[in-house]
Design goal:
Length: 381
């Protein structure tokens, strides 16, 4: 792409700086926060064409083509539409109020502005305070993927706003906010749905884990229906799981042949065993001895640190017996996400991209809800 095209992104850069200046004027953010936000913004220009070739993540150009088509430049909209998630995300980028969309940097700037807006959303509501604030500003994968021209920032924004309303006990609104994920990232919506159903099933036997009290009659009807459909869900769900395990294995290796034993789960026992193994492994992969290059080695170091922090946050909550209903649901939601993706994702890069929204959500809300629980109970750690 020509330098002339990149030059026009200066207009978008100027707009972003003006927005940050207005935010600083309004909120009087501390100097380290502003410095970290400026560093985050600089990552837009330190990733593509510097850290790696943009072709390493070719989806970026798909979103760009759709966004430009929406603006009436480049291809027609019909030609630019690759699939529904790309079409919807690209359309959102296309209608986003930035002056120009000339390059993948333009989309990345939009993603940074979205990150900035969700930062303000959480900061105003005092969700970002203490550990949660610095986690949101410093979590490497969060900074990295919100500096690229991908749809993941849109997914993250939806997940954060949805969970904010879940914390406020507005569960129906929380579900409604999740609905755009039907087209943006259906897997994440399915994970939320499975977690929610499991949460309310558990609430039948452990009422204290939920604010919402299910009437006994409805609860037992719900439980009976769940038990009745479980054999069918297992039978057909296992076929679907094996299909996606094989599909993702082929995508990772490039080798297409009859599904091999490594990708197939044939019994409930195998499913349980594989889930127990793959859940923590998905959080930590790649392990140091699996790294094939410097980038993966850095990822491995990040994963080990993130895993230790998550373990500490969970241990701390149990140690001090601070376990509010939203914390319980969030822990379940997080574990389900690791279990589901751990069963189907083989590629290290894909694993990092798919898990970072859940880790960011967990860091921000689990730590802050713990702090609020401690304050409410009136004791110090």
């Amino acid at each position: 792409m020509s330098e002339t095209v990149y030059f026009f992104d200066i207009i978008n850069v100027a707009l972003t700086f003006a927005l940050m200046a207005a935010i600083q004027y309004r909120y009087r953010l501390r100097f380290p926060i502003i410095l970290l936000l400026l560093f985050h913004f600089s990552l837009i220009f330190l990733t593509n064409n510097v850290l790696f070739d943009p072709g390493y993540m070719p989806d970026q150009f798909k979103y760009l083509r759709v966004a430009q088509a929406v603006r009436g430049s480049g291809e027609s909209i019909a030609e630019a539409m690759w699939n529904l998630p790309v079409a919807v995300a690209g359309t959102i980028f296309g209608i986003f109020p930035v002056p120009l969309i000339n390059s993948i940097y333009s989309i990345a700037i939009i993603n940074f502005i979205l990150y900035l807006l969700i930062f303000l959303f959480l900061y105003e509501r005092e969700v970002l305070k203490g550990f949660s604030l610095w986690a949101f500003l410093l979590y490497p994968s969060l900074l990295f993927y919100t500096s690229l021209s991908l749809r993941d920032t849109l997914v993250l924004v939806i997940m954060i706003i949805s969970f904010w309303y879940f914390v406020r006990n507005k569960i129906l609104l929380s579900i409604i906010i999740q609905l755009p994920l039907i087209v943006l990232k259906f897997q994440n919506l399915a994970i939320f749905g499975v977690s929610l159903v499991t949460y309310f099933l558990l609430a039948i036997f452990f009422p204290k884990i939920s604010h919402k009290k299910i009437p006994p009659g409805i609860a037992y009807v719900f439980l009976a229906v769940f038990v009745a459909i479980t054999p069918f869900a297992y039978r057909y769900g296992l076929k679907g799981l094996n299909f996606y395990r094989y599909f993702m294995y082929v995508e990772n290796t490039g080798i297409i042949y009859t599904p091999i034993a490594e990708t197939q789960i044939n019994s409930l026992g195998e499913l349980v065993t594989e889930t127990i193994k793959s859940t923590p492994y998905f959080l930590l992969k790649p392990l140091p001895w699996q790294a094939e290059n410097l980038f993966q080695l850095v990822q491995s170091g990040e994963n080990l640190l993130i895993g230790a922090i998550i373990f500490y946050l969970i241990w701390r909550a149990f140690r001090y017996k601070v376990r509010t209903p939203p914390m319980t649901f969030l822990l379940l939601y997080f574990i389900v996400s690791l279990a589901v993706y751990g069963l189907v994702i083989w590629n290290f890069g894909t694993a990092a991209r798919y898990k970072f929204p859940f880790i960011a959500l967990f860091f921000v809300f689990y730590s802050r809800l713990f702090d609020l629980g401690v304050e409410k109970r009136g004791f110090r750690e």
